[in-house]
Amino acid sequence: MSHPFLVKDIAFQAGLSTATVDRVINSRPGVRRQTVQRVQAAIAELERQQKREEFFGRTYVIDIVMEAPDRFCDAVRLAFEREAGAMAPTLFRFRFHMAEIMRDRELVSTLDRIRLRGSDGIVLKAGNTKLVREAVRHCEEQGLPVVTLVTDLPGSTRVAYAGADNHAAGQTAAYLMANRFAERHAHVLLTLSSHQFEGEEAREAGFRRFMARYRPDIVITSVSEGFGRDGATGELARHALAEHPNLSAVYSIGGGNRAILKAFRDAARNIDIFIAHDLDAENLDLLTNGDVTFVLHHDLRTDVREVFRVIAARHEKRSGVAARLSQMEIITPTNLPAI
User: Fold this and answer.
1) ∠ CA(171), CA(176), CA(181), 5° rounding?
2) Residue 121 has pLDDT above 70, yes or no
3) pTM (2 decimals)?
């Protein structure tokens, strides 16, 4: 496998060990096809980055570390790749470290490897735990800026948060829900991927605060720890439906929407209103088909531009630069943006 790159560079790009990469590029036996494909994809990405560098000036290497469902990781990856082209003459290169489930020690190990290897900045979506905050502190002490994306780490030394006002988003969802039911009784299923994610917690808090003030008669049942995966989220929804015969509305903060809809269909239960977050390909399809009523959407590319701006400012030693919150939009089938 011909290439001009160091084994350690390919390994870091692919998220594999140098020994594994060495086996692949030397065509040794005992390597899975998926592993070979990961190495090939890493080399192809390094080649693309190398070609871009021939035409650009200052280059920043950014590591994106995320625990999120694959569909959201794909949306984030696309946003970074699309927005990078608009930043000329500055070039941004990316190394993606993404998984649907990333335990604290695995995530901290990834951050430590990045810190020791070197980077111009880390974009992080992770649970707000003591171990993660401590790893962020180590990065900042070494001069490596960390920007949280979509969900924040209050109490950490991260340099900025890029994303929407999650508390306001929850209140917006509550407003839409309350108006749909007017004076009618309702029982809402509120789903989170995990209580560890501060952004989701803020959305739930905003939703509950609005309802407590304006519609205390609306009952809210929340489920979590499905991590946005269809199997686990669907199982949580099925248990909730079995325990609560009056559930008739959904506020999905954490994803897994097809599985939630299937759980309602399997139980022969109607949904009066379904509010979801983020206009990814799945939610676009569900909204167009009438399965989802509203999608609360903020443009990830806006968040990515703020990430670039903050990291560049940090390296240029400009002080007082903070990320601006992106605006939340209420999307219906009548005002679909391009994604």
Assistant:
1) 125
2) yes
3) 0.78
